[in-house]
């Protein structure tokens, strides 16, 4: 993670250590916690050599010890094959008799499980009407995980070796809830009609639109609502078509004017870092791994970076384009967006989605650009404000962090840098942004209270952890994979309560 300036970029998350540029205050990257040159080896290699972590060490050393045995869950390890091959020689030293005996035991267990599975098969075939059609690879993964759990349970009783946990893919983007999109209720139909009336009026009442959007925007009208709430479209309906045409032409004018300069020496570092980060953006969603989509993201991010030299491109900005892209894509796609092949769309439609995503992302970043300028002072201030806020909201949790020497910057930097996008499924981020765009300074100010509510949501799990490593592992891998609209609604309600109690009470921040 390079957080210094547009001229100081690195090819690896920990590469900033190799660039001797000065810092106002060292901060932790969105991709990884801070590492030193001795701690850049692969997690598997280090863990096999490292003894138990000394939990009573100094604060800095304890975090570095933790860094030895963990990595950002967002990244996909590129060195697993190398580690496996390097360890294969040691596997060959196993005694052949032991290997044969183990193999025989596995075959026996497998035959027993097969008999049980065959007995269960007729019962499963009797329930065709209740079967759920799986439309995405992630949903199939979730289904397989639940089915295999039952089959593996007898085997787990017979062996002591721990199984490697299966990390489910993100559930479908198009789902309104984790359990799937239910039929529209009468209340939801009424809300949708209210939105359509507002949007079709000659001059849309933006205050009323924000009020209606706070509890969530219906999928059918979300694209045009987001364009209006972000300030990209005018409230006057007669001016919208010409505005869209002008702004889209302006964006592609930037492409013609600037994009070829990506190969020039003074822009090479920026473009190279963008090119490295794009494949890491939501790596479990097939949509974002399509070459055409990655080319679109590269153009959007490069044009934004060179038009904002005060910050340039910083890792984390690449995440912020994805919700806009998905929302504007859904305007043209009725099926599952997650696995949709964008080559099926016309060139004009793709150009419209790209330009709209650029301008709406730019509007968002205009309000939080100090998060990405030199040393990222905006994020440092927000993390400090979060610490002070939590100390007033829940002193027990705050003291628990102090007891085990956990710094808020070690986990909350990513929360601010990526707006909780790496802690929540993308469908939840889209729902969250409905409210952020409805709130005054939603992305810069209200987000602080959402982070506080999000932290306190896990207070029981936090207090149950009684060492530094356990706390950091929990806070960097919070179990939100099955979250949907209901959980986000409760989170936002609690955040609003906290804002109402603390936003206009500066004395609450004084110790």
UniProtKB/TrEMBL annotation:
<comment type="function">
    <text>May act as a GTPase-activating protein for Rab family protein(s).</text>
</comment>
<keyword id="KW-0597">Phosphoprotein</keyword>
<dbReference type="GO" id="GO:0005096">
    <property type="term" value="F:GTPase activator activity"/>
</dbReference>
<dbReference type="InterPro" id="IPR035969">
    <property type="entry name" value="Rab-GAP_TBC_sf"/>
</dbReference>
<dbReference type="GO" id="GO:0071889">
    <property type="term" value="F:14-3-3 protein binding"/>
</dbReference>
<feature type="domain" description="Rab-GAP TBC">
    <location>
        <begin position="216"/>
        <end position="440"/>
    </location>
</feature>
<protein>
    <recommendedName>
        <fullName>Rab-GAP TBC domain-containing protein</fullName>
    </recommendedName>
</protein>
<dbReference type="Pfam" id="PF00566">
    <property type="entry name" value="RabGAP-TBC"/>
</dbReference>
<keyword id="KW-0343">GTPase activation</keyword>
<dbReference type="InterPro" id="IPR000195">
    <property type="entry name" value="Rab-GAP-TBC_dom"/>
</dbReference>
């Amino acid at each position: 993670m390079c957080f210094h300036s547009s001229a100081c970029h690195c090819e690896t998350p920990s590469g900033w250590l190799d660039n001797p540029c000065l810092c106002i205050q060292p901060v932790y990257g969105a991709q990884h916690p801070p590492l030193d040159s001795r701690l850049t080896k692969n997690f598997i290699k280090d863990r096999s050599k490292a003894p138990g972590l000394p939990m009573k060490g100094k604060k800095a050393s304890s975090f570095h010890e933790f860094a030895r045995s963990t990595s950002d869950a967002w990244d996909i390890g590129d060195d697993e094959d190398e580690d496996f091959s390097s360890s294969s020689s040691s596997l060959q030293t196993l005694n052949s008799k032991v290997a044969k005996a183990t193999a025989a035991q596995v075959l026996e267990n497998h035959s027993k499980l097969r008999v049980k599975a065959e007995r269960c098969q007729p019962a499963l075939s009797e329930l065709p009407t209740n079967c759920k059609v799986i439309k995405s690879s992630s949903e199939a993964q979730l289904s397989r995980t639940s089915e295999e759990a039952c089959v593996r349970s007898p085997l787990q009783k017979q062996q002591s070796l721990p199984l490697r946990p299966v990390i489910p893919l993100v559930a479908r983007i198009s789902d309104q809830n984790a359990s799937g999109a239910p039929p529209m209720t009468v209340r939801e139909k009424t809300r949708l009609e209210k939105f359509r009336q507002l949007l079709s009026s000659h001059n849309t009442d933006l205050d009323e639109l924000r009020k209606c959007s706070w509890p969530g925007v219906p999928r059918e009208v979300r694209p045009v609502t987001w364009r209006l709430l972000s300030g990209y479209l005018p409230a006057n309906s007669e001016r919208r078509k010409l505005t869209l045409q002008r702004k889209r032409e302006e964006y592609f004018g930037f492409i013609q004017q600037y994009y070829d300069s990506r190969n020039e020496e003074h822009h090479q570092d920026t473009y190279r870092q963008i090119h490295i980060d794009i494949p890491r953006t939501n790596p479990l969603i097939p949509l974002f791994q399509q070459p055409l989509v990655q080319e679109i993201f590269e153009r959007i991010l490069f044009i934004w970076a060179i038009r904002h030299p005060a910050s340039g491109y910083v890792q984390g900005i690449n995440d912020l384009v994805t919700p806009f892209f998905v929302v504007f894509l859904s305007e043209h796609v009725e099926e599952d967006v997650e696995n949709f092949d964008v080559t099926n769309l016309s060139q004009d439609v793709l150009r419209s989605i790209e330009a709209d995503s650029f301008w709406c992302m730019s509007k968002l970043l205009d309000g939080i650009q100090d998060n990405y300028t030199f040393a990222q002072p905006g994020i440092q201030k927000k993390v400090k404000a979060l610490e002070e806020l939590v100390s007033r909201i829940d002193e027990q949790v705050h003291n628990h962090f102090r007891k085990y020497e956990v710094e808020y910057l070690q986990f909350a930097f990513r929360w601010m840098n990526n707006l909780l996008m790496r802690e929540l499924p993308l469908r939840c981020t889209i729902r969250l942004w409905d409210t952020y765009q409805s709130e005054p300074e939603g992305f810069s100010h209200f987000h602080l209270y959402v982070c506080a509510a999000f932290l306190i949501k896990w207070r029981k799990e936090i207090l149950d952890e009684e060492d530094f490593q356990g706390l950091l592992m929990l806070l960097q891998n919070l179990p939100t994979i099955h979250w949907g609209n209901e959980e986000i609604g409760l989170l936002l309600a609690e955040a609003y309560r906290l804002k109402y109690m603390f936003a206009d009470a500066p004395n609450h921040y004084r110790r």
